[in-house]
Design goal:
This protein is mainly alpha-helical. It is built from 25 helices and three strands. Residues 1-23 form the signal peptide.
Length: 597
């Protein structure tokens, strides 16, 4: 070839490469624009989620719970999938291709689950619109201006419509043969009635919402006349509309209660077996069957029992493992008094444990969250029925820190020997590290930052109960027993969840299994089984997720040898946002392969 032609060929080749890269960049841009559009279109449908994100749009509104709105949502999901699949994924860069895959899988799963849209209990003792309303207004609805206070009152005035929609949803399920078990109703009726106690409904101290509104209004930088009017308007809204909405709900629930029965498992629902299998796949992000999960649980329970017996020897306890369980349940040394002082001591010590861990994060992590974390007791209005402990992620705009909630309603359910593991799980290095880092990620689509895969998130939480053991923490053998007790609890969940929903165990059988095989008090076991009954499959996520995260870490260690850095491994797990376990495994395998080159 002559020099001039060679030169032209080089230019042409370079031009073609550039055009190819441009085409790929354009396809990336199209995909990223769609990711943003999908997130925003979903966000537009939820004033409640907008507030969770720290936004003040539609600040006086609730989500629309009507069947029409739900149908529109599924239609929008199908439209999103059509628009996504119009993009040529073969031209996407690796990072964008991962986002494409995750969104496509999520959309397909949402569409698949439309057939199971009624297979849930919108009102139960763990969560539901009835408890969301007060907890949301108290914890999420910030009042920084007079307009914010007016929006708060606007939301109170919107409660009757919300409760009418909620009872219509419950009635639709009832007609399909889907009614929560009988034990649920006393809890939810009591929680709803508690909101209507106190001023302005009855004499005495302010009701929870009146106290919250008064406190927020009085903190405003405005004149006393304006504050007085806002408080008066709030009282009127509560007395008229909140009361009307909850009275309607309570009346309906009392009628529905008469139709409820004592069958507890998902097997009782229409096509219940098929539904439970689908729920397991969604929750665990694996193809594990109910039988396989049940057997993993039995094996893990046996292993942890063995480790507990070693601790019994260490503390020189004489007797059987069950005797040791009774000792741990009943000995007063492991419980703070059920007083304000006892509760405050628990909160102070849990905070100190988290603060100590904050100072050691560099040993394990490269990326750390900017958002702060605080420890709070669950509010009195919901502490009787709320879970033992839970975490709330920080607002993206920094207006709200991460919160670790400890339920101190009954201090006998919060043994001090479990305090350390619980603080690590809900706080640092557990959910706060995971969810705050995800919230603060840059260059990742919002649907990934705020996405959720239960096995990933709860697997990480349980893994981070174990991680401090490797750092030399849990120095007190009883605290180490507490760590094992919490891991045992999650292993037993695999047994009882599949027992209830697959093997048709009764509520009593499942409670008895936990009482026999764990050190938790019977009240704990009852509340736990009742939780698993209303949330089929959810309880399987913790242990399945932990097993996979630990298994992948050990594989990387074995194959990478001296090149393995635990801080890099944790960065790999945390800095892409939530992913299914299958995707996490692929990413770890790619990391191992890349390190070996």
């Amino acid at each position: 070839m002559k020099p001039i032609l060679k030169s032209l060929a080089g230019v042409t080749g370079g031009l073609l490469l550039s055009l190819g890269a441009l085409a790929d960049t354009t396809e990336d841009a199209k995909a990223e624009a769609l990711f943003e559009a999908v997130f925003n279109e979903n966000l537009d449908r939820s004033p409640v989620f907008q507030t969770y994100l720290g936004m003040k749009t539609n600040y006086d509104q609730w989500d629309d719970l009507s069947p029409e709105h739900e149908r529109e949502g599924y239609a929008q999901t199908r439209d999103h999938l059509t628009r996504l699949q119009a993009i040529d994924k073969s031209k996407l860069s690796a990072d964008v291709a991962l986002s494409y895959r995750l969104l496509e899988d999520d959309l397909k799963q949402d569409i698949e689950f439309e057939q199971w849209r009624l297979h849930n209990y919108p009102v139960n003792q763990m969560f539901g619109t009835h408890s969301m309303v007060p907890s949301f207004l108290i914890n999420q609805h910030r009042v920084d201006t007079v307009e914010d206070a007016q929006a708060y009152i606007g939301r109170i005035n919107g409660v009757p419509k919300l409760m009418i929609q909620l009872t219509a949803n419950l009635e639709e399920r009832a007609k399909a043969g889907i009614i929560a078990p009988k034990f649920v109703f006393p809890y939810v009726i009591s929680d709803s009635e508690n909101l209507l106690k106190g001023a302005p409904f009855t004499k005495g101290e302010d009701s929870p919402l009146m106290a919250d509104l008064r406190k927020k209004v009085n903190a405003l930088d405005t004149d006393d006349k304006t504050k007085a009017k806002l408080i008066k308007d709030g009282e009127k809204a509560l007395k008229k509309n909140l009361k009307a909405g909850y009275t309607h709900l309570i009346s309906y629930l009392k009628k529905l209660e008469k139709k409820a029965d004592t069958r507890d498992g998902a097997w009782k629902l229409p096509k219940g077996g098929e539904f439970y299998n689908a729920a397991l796949r969604k929750t665990t992000t694996t193809e594990l069957t109910a039988e396989e999960i049940h057997n993993i649980g039995l094996k893990e329970v046996a292993r942890i029992h063995g480790e507990m017996k070693a601790i019994m020897k260490q503390v020189k306890f004489e007797g059987s493992l069950q005797d040791f369980f009774v000792f741990m349940r009943e000995d007063d040394q492991f419980y703070y008094p059920n007083t304000e002082a006892g509760k405050q001591r628990y909160l102070d010590e849990a905070t100190a444990m988290i603060d100590n861990m904050k100072g050691r994060l560099d040993e394990l992590f490269i990326t750390k969250p900017k958002a702060d974390l605080i420890v709070k007791a669950v509010e009195p209005f919901r502490e009787k029925s709320a879970g033992k402990a839970f975490y709330q992620r920080p607002a993206p705009n920094g207006s709200r820190p991460g919160i670790y909630y400890a339920n101190l309603y009954d201090m006998k359910s919060m043994p001090t020997y479990q305090m350390e593991a619980l603080a690590y799980h809900e706080g640092i290095p557990g959910h706060h590290m995971q969810l705050a880092i995800a919230t603060e990620l840059t260059g990742v689509p919002k649907f990934r930052k705020f996405g959720h895969y239960t096995a990933y998130s709860e697997g990480w939480g349980l893994y981070t109960e174990y991680l401090p053991k490797e750092m030399g923490l849990y120095e007190d053998p009883y605290s180490d027993f507490g760590r094992l007790a919490m891991e045992l609890w999650r292993a037993a969940r695999l047994v009882v969840d599949t027992g209830l929903h697959y093997k048709k165990w009764t509520r009593e059988q499942a409670i008895d299994y936990l009482v026999t095989n764990t050190p938790n008090p019977e009240a704990d076991c009852v509340k736990a089984i009742e939780r698993y009954i209303v949330m089929p499959s959810q309880a399987t996520a913790y242990k399945i997720g932990m097993i996979k995260i630990l298994e992948l870490r050990e594989k990387a260690k074995a194959e990478m040898g001296d090149r393995f850095d635990i801080r890099q491994y944790h960065d790999l797990v945390l800095t892409s946002g939530p992913v299914p376990l299958t995707v996490l495994e692929e990413r770890v395998n790619q990391w191992i392969a890349g390190a070996s080159k």
